Structure formats: C-alpha cells, structure tokens
Amino acid sequence: MTVLARLDHVTRRFGDVVAVDDVSLDISAGSILGLLGPNGAGKSTVLSLVQGLRRPSTGRVQLFGGAPGDYRSRQRLGCTPQETALPPTLRVGEVIDFVGRHFDRPLATVALAEEFGLTELLKRQTGALSGGQKRRLSVALAFVGQPELVLLDEPTTGLDVDARRTLWDAVRRQHDRGATVVVTSHYLEEIEALAERVVVMGHGRVIADDTVSAVISQVSLRQVRLRTDQPDLVSALAGVVRRDSAEDGSYTFYAGDSDRLIGDLVRAGIPFTDLTVRGATLEEAFLALTAAPVASEADAVPEHAQMETENHR
Amino acid sequence: MSTLQSTPAGGAASVRATGVLSLTLLHARFNLLETMRIPAALIGSLVFPGLSLLFFVVPQRTVADNPEFATQAVIALSVFALMSNALFGFGLTISANRELPWDPYLRTLPAPGVARVLGQVLSTGLLGLASIVPVIVIGGLFTAAEVSPVRLLSGLVALGLSALPFMFIGVCIGYSMSSKAAIAVVQIVMFGLAFAGGLFLPPFLFADWLDTLSMFLPSRQAREFVIWAVQGGDLQPWVWIGLLVWTAAMFALALLLFRRDEGRRFR
Question: pTM for this one?
Fold first, then answer.
C-alpha cells in the first residue's frame, strides 16, 4: 500500500506542554482512518503537522514523500476550514471557485455544489448561511481539488442527526472515488459509521491503532454501580480501571470482567448496597481508556486542550 | 489513486496551470473582492489623504499659490497616502487574519508563500493608487501644482515603486505581532516616518541633524524619488540606493517572518 503521509517519532511541544508525544503513524492509501480522542488528546495538532501548519519539535513528518511545508506536497491534499472561518462577504460559489483554482484538476463548482447540496446557495454570501450549511461548504472545500488525501477535523460537530448522515454519505461517496480520508472526532458513532481503521489518542500518544471492531473489543468494559463507604478498597481490587462518583453518593467502577469483580468484592467483605451491572457504552469505555489511572481522574483533560481551542478562534 | 477518480458530474474537471503568477493574481483578486464588499472601509482610505490636502495645504496660500511648493506638497501627501495605506493595509489585515481560522486554512492550500505575499501587495497597492486620485484632483483644482501628462505618469510609477518598502514593513508588522499591538505600532511608525521624512513639513525647515537622519528613512527617500520623477533635477544616490536597500531588506524579512509563522503563538 502506498503511504500518503507518515509521522516518524514526532513530538510537538507548546512551551512546557507536550501536545504530541513521540507519535509514529502511517496513513496509507485507500482507507478511511478515524482519529479518536477527547479534546486536547493531540488530534488537531497531528493534523496541523501533516498540513504543514506546524513543524514538529522533534521527529519527521512526510506528506506524499515531501515536506508538508512545501506547497507542492499539498497539491493532492484536501483540508477543511473551521466553519466559522469562511470569509463572510464572499459568496458560496466564489469561495469554492477560489479554493479550486489552487489545484491542477479542480472539480467544477456546480458539480461540487450539487454533490454537497449547495446548489441553491451558490449566490449566497457565506455570512448568511446557517451553521449546517457552513459546515457542508467547509467539508466540500476539502474535496474541490480531487485530492488523494483528505483531512477532516471534527466535520460534523454541532450538526443534527440528519445533517450528519447526509454529510457522511457525501464523504463516503468521495472515498469510493478514491480519496483516502482521515477524520478526527470525539463521536464514536461517527468513527464507527465512517472509519475502517481507528487510531485512539490520549495525552498526545497513540493508545490504540487497529480496526474499528478490534478497538471496540479491546475497550469493552463493564460498569458496576453500587453504594459503599469504602470506594478506595473497591478501586484497589484487581481489574478496576476507573472510578466515577455520582452526585447521589453512588460509585461506578469500570472493569473488564464484572463477574470476577463482584466475586472479589464479596470475598473482600466490603459492605455495599444498590448493585447494578451493565455494559459500558463504547464512549464510556473509550473515556476509561484515555483517562489517567484511577487516582487522578480529576485532570483528565490536559491544559493544551484549551490552547488548541484558542488557536481556532 | 488518480486512476480511481472518475470524472465528476458535468465532466468539467479541467487541467489548469497553477503557476506562482496566476496564484498571485488569484489572491489579489479575492482580497480586493472581499474589501469591495465593505464599502465603508474603502471610503476611509480613499477620502482621508484628499481631505488632508484640502484642510492643511489649500488654505496656506503661500504654499498653494507657488507651483513648485504646491506640487511638492501634493507629492508629499501622495507618498503619505500610499504609506499609510500600505502600513494599515498590511500591518492590520495580516495580524488580524492570523488570528482568524480562515488564514490557517489558506496556508494548507497548495500556494507558495510568495504568491500570498505578492497577492496582498497587488491588491493593497491598487487601493493605494486609488487613494491618491483625490489628492491629485484636489491639488490640480485648488492649488498651483502643475505637471505634464508624461511627468504625471512617471510620478505615478515612481510612487508605486517607492511604496514597496512600506508594504513590506507592514507585512513584517503583521506577521510579528497581535492585531492590538499592530494598531499601536503602525501608528507610531506611520507618524514617525511621515514627520521625519518631510511628508508633513518640507525638509528645508529641518534642523541639520534631523535632515541627516531623514535621509536614511524610506519616507524621505520616497518623497525625493517622486519629486525627481515629476519635477526632474538630479537624483541623489542616497535616494535610490536607500530605496533599494529598504525594499530588499524588508522583502527578505517579510518572507522570513511568513515562513516562520504558525499563526498565533503560545507562550
């Protein structure tokens, strides 16, 4: 398989904060790769390194065999702007046309607009679009140059379910035409719907890199909910990876094997009441996987989450 | 892979040359288009220099009635118009754009840094040239300033050339600080260069030390260069050498800052 982009032991620091920590990653032609992780996990920084917007502090980033900072390397790369970023005075058709003219083989503005349901809006100034319409335009811009590699950063955040599915369909159609897609998200549903391979990031590191089903089985956890006076003793039992406390005084423990946990609980003689057990959703499991160990659950989101957000304002 | 790509609906995928020149023109055109959509911003830069001439030069009849002095006053204010347009146009636009997420997006497109810098040079330059039209019209109608059509043309060319260092100074300001800092710095630089460069007061009123200092400033060099192009006489070497050095140095610095830029910085 052709490698379109490669990160080789890449670390990126912002001052004292390590946003990306020794990440090695190959993005090969043909797949849809999901990049999954909570805010501040380093997903957006990884994309900005591939786009040539930032340089790694150490390590090497390659795009189509060249340096991402060289504009010629970006001829076959498609990216999206933040939807709030579109120049408000320009018309939809003008923005598509402007971006398309950077590429050797752009799609016709009318054809792209039809593909993403923007035909009625071509004459509208982007400042007059709704949030969903702006989002569709932003994603459409990534495909105007008929790129081989497309980077979508949280493409459907803030969209309702219908709009989200419409956009996924459009992305899948583009993928079927040969575009390799990298999509970041903190929606598991989105990754499950789109991606074939998923890379889970947390604290700037790659935690898991596998097929979607393999990652799901890897992180399948059970939730054991109960009331007790001695939560620390329960946390110390074998197999407990995380503890949450609810406002009603109950605790939720996450463990791979809930039957064994309850057996241990009873054998240890720890008093408890109101026991319920259920499977963790993928989202909960994924949070447990990316969060710090049981002891320090308070600071699950590192500081550079805020820094990355500020950058986009 | 390219072999997998089918022709889109409409079959309009076309092969286009995307050379640096055409990308430069593209960026210039869309910069202008964006500016044109907010007419208030245009009126400000088009009207202000003309009004300065009307209020500060036209009433002073000793200057306004003397063809040589009046022509020089029109030239000085034209240089001022271009300089403030360049400093504001670049310094503020760039620093403000760097704080918006549209700018990082543009940097992911396959366009070299040169095309984006030169695109902005072209669009702001055209606006600058438009801003001196009122100055020339008011100067022609209400003062004794005089110029032949050929001299007017050579003066305009000289104005355009001498504005290059100010454009690149603006670019450097834009890429080296936040928009709030840029507003203050642009004003200090603009008024400093205008006063010390003889754009508000003619240099023959200067003290010797100020006159000497003035010769090292691009504003003074621009003034002398355009006066030479319009009124003739000798072109002192310090004028054109100075302009060349300022232009080359500021262009190099602007490119360096552009390449180093990663949007807003975090400390």
Answer: 0.73
